Amino acid sequence: MHSSHSTSSSDPSGLSAHGWDEYLAAEFADHEAAGLLPARVVGVDRGQCDAVTERGPVRAATDRGLEPVTGDWAALLPGEARQEPRLVALLPRRTAIVRSSAARDSRGQVLAANVDTVVLAVSLAGALDAGRLERLLALAWESGARPVVALTKTDRAADPAAALTEAAAAAPGVDIVATSAVTGEGLAELTALLTGTVVLLGQSGAGKSTLANTLLGEEVLATGEIREQDGKGRHTTVRRELIPLPGGGVLIDTPGLRGVGLHDAAEGLGQVFAEIEELAEECRFGDCGHETEPGCAVLAAVESGALPARRLASYRKLLRENAWAASRTDARLRAERTQRWKEIIRHQRATYRFRDQQR
């Protein structure tokens, strides 16, 4: 289905430059019939959104109950007279990057939506944290997008080749590119791997904003120095922003992640630790916990040196964390279901009392 909006790929200034396609046009058909405009959220700030439309950029309010994030596609009610534009609906998300909320409650925090490629920026200025990389990979795989690992600051690495080998062991099946914004190493190779909507994720100080500026071809995003005492950087990106890339597609830069808690990421973990899950199928017991059970193929692989003990320890740790998050989500859903039933019962009792009083 084609939309009457100016969304053809031959119009780089239109929504096609931000990822609009025929599938989205079909999804939007009912909203279009209601006189609404398609818009892509490029930033969220203090309850309002910056969005792009066929008519240009807009600043819009959001209807109550909507929680748009950078990358969302939305239905916009254009502002008429003195009324400001409003987002009134969100299209279903194709993909979403979700971590546990900063408050560590049972609800996940969506970092970005409708992402095609997740670039995980990992600095080589210090020792590579393989466990953190595995955690980020689980987040990326679970989103439904394709992860790519960008090892940054290779010009400051003590042993770039060893770091690359270690990263490859932690990220099987994932493209890994060693890059340096100083020397230009790996940037052309990385650019060739970027498709569609690209999001940059990484710890503060990983060089995300510097890398983003290099990919964008200009100094669009602020960068900061790294503190010498702990090697960490300041949060130079203060919100998630969506910016068109010169070679096509769009880039979402995100604030540095101090913590990456997993939220319902069982499939992502299965992808990151695929070799362990394949070994587990050979265990004697179907519910093997890979701790002390006889006939455990996973423990046998560790003993033979085929599977690093660190890798198994990381797998166990992330599985426990994910199970804890899932249990909190289940408890919240049960509580919400119970609360709904209580409200229904209260409403029924009030109705019965009113009916009895009318007799």
UniProtKB/TrEMBL annotation:
Chief localization: cytoplasm
EC category name: hydrolase
Binding-site positions, Zn(2+): C283, C288, H290, C296
Name of the protein in question: Small ribosomal subunit biogenesis GTPase RsgA
Needed cofactors: Zn(2+)
Subcellular localization: Cytoplasm
Family the UniProt entry places it in: Belongs to the TRAFAC class YlqF/YawG GTPase family. RsgA subfamily.
Documented EC number(s): 3.6.1.-
Residues the entry annotates as binding GTP: T152, K153, T154, D155, G202, Q203, S204, G205, A206, G207, K208, S209, T210
EngC GTPase domain ranges (all copies): 113-258
Record bears the keyword Oxidoreductase: no
Assembly notes: Monomer. Associates with 30S ribosomal subunit, binds 16S rRNA.
UniProt cofactor note: Binds 1 zinc ion per subunit.
Alphabetic keyword roster: Cytoplasm, GTP-binding, Hydrolase, Metal-binding, Nucleotide-binding, Ribosome biogenesis, RNA-binding, rRNA-binding, Zinc
Role this protein plays: One of several proteins that assist in the late maturation steps of the functional core of the 30S ribosomal subunit. Helps release RbfA from mature subunits. May play a role in the assembly of ribosomal proteins into the subunit. Circularly permuted GTPase that catalyzes slow GTP hydrolysis, GTPase activity is stimulated by the 30S ribosomal subunit.
Ribosomal protein among keywords: no
Limits of the CP-type G domain: 105-260
PANTHER family to which the protein is assigned, alphabetical: SMALL RIBOSOMAL SUBUNIT BIOGENESIS GTPASE RSGA (PTHR32120:SF10)
